[in-house]
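To fix ideas, we quote verbatim one protein's residues and fold tokens.
>
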Amino acid sequence: MTTDQAQQRVISNPELPAGGSDTSRLRGVRRFYLGLVPLFIASATIWAALAVSVPALWPGWTALAITSDSMAPSIRRGDIVIAAPYGSGVLGPGSVIVFEDPGGGSLLTHRVVEVNGDGSYLTQGDANGQPDSTPVHPEQVIGVGRFLVPFFGLPMVWAQQGDWVLVAVWVGVVSFVVFLSRHAFTYPNEAKSSGG
């Protein structure tokens, strides 16, 4: 087919978009819809980040990435627990508390299983066979668990534990998702007639 014949074919078919063929328009529509999926994932990630960071900005609230499976299956490694400040009231069995580890400077998140006569709490991880050996006194309680954001803390846990390969994979996946989501902002224009 010569160039003149190709031009005559485009002119004789006014339903073709001025900028290209039906195939290129279809390709653009596919890219748009494929861009919506990563855009949704990126949006959900941003909302989860806000869910973690905004409560943690309130005085006394704490956001804590869980580093072990001692509270599985209800709270897993990589989940983020958002804890409200602990007041002076007595907590009942079943309350999830964040407290200073009696054995050393980190924070623990375990469930209260019993309130002792002196007002201290006997705690236990849901996955642990035995209660913790040292009771937790009210002054050691940092907060009471109120919200859970599943899996969002995994990159922080990986970084703390030196799993840099997993951190790099996570950064790569997030970057790729953001890159793909740009297609959601480029919906192809409606077909134009050749006259206008």
